[in-house]
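Build the 3D complex.
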Amino acid sequence: GQQVMQIPQYQHVQEGEDFTTYCNSSTTLSNIQWYKQRPGGHPVFLIQLVKSGEVKKQKRLTFQFGEAKKNSSLHITATQTTDVGTYFCAGTRMNRDDKIIFGKGTRLHILP
Amino acid sequence: EAQVTQNPRYLITVTGKKLTVTCSQNMNHEYMSWYRQDPGLGLRQIYYSMNVEVTDKGDVPEGYKVSRKEKRNFPLILESPSPNQTSLYFCASSLLASMNTEAFFGQGTRLTVV
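Done.
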């Protein structure tokens, strides 16, 4: 079945350094969503990408959707302690939008 | 306030004792789903519902049941819980049956089966 692979599983960065997590699908996606889960919390929606090659920014966060709509990335510039948490990508297959597949997430830890 | 409410937040139970985790949303969303979250495995979908009386299996449905008699409620039922169902469970809802809309998650239910 379809898988959405997310790497790395864990990332430790010094505060102020950049961070990137990558998401790759075995099949073409109709869209991809990103969620953030703070420690002890629940996933919270960040953004959705729909178009091939789309790039969206939210302050220090940059989201990209690949040209083939099979991969995506989230890049955080100059990390802050508030960025701590697990970041999940979630994809929906083309012509099968009743099911969403989550990646396993990347846990980001910030070293002060 | 728009929200997805799960109850209970924490539950410790014994093997074989039937339990229900409730989920309710106040946003008139069509789509609701249940996930379990386990270390290293991320979020895995258990069951989902595209509308009232319409439910379907997700990726890990074994040992679970759901019902959707009303639009706002989507309870998760464990008829005979086993220790391998110890997990963190999340209910989520979306506006449309299509998942091309933002999912709102409940606060989570941490279940321990001994």
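The radius of gyration of chain A is 13 Å.
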